Amino acid sequence: MNEIHIDSAWMPYEPDNASPWNLRRVHHLHRRAGFGATWEELQRDLQAGPEVAVDRVLRGGNATDDFDSLQRLIGDAAVSSGDINRLKAWWFYRILYSGDPLIERMTLMWHNHFATSNLKVANVAMMKRQNDLFRQHALGKFGDLLRGVIKDAAMMIWLDAKANRKGKPNENLARELMELFTLRVGHYSETDVKEVARALAGWTVRGGNFEQVAAYHDDGTKQVLGEQGEFDGDDVLAILLKQEPLARRIAMRLCEVFFGEDVITDDALDELASGLRDHDLDIGWAVETILRSEAFFADDNIGNRVLDPIQFMIGPLRGLEMLDPPPSTLLLAEWAAKLGQDLFYPPNVFGWPGGRLWLTTRTMIGRANYVSALCQGELHRPNKPPKIQALATKHGFSTPTKRTKFASMLLLGHENATGDMEAMLRRPSSQLG
Question: What pTM, to 2 d.p., does this model score?
Answer without folding.
Answer: 0.95
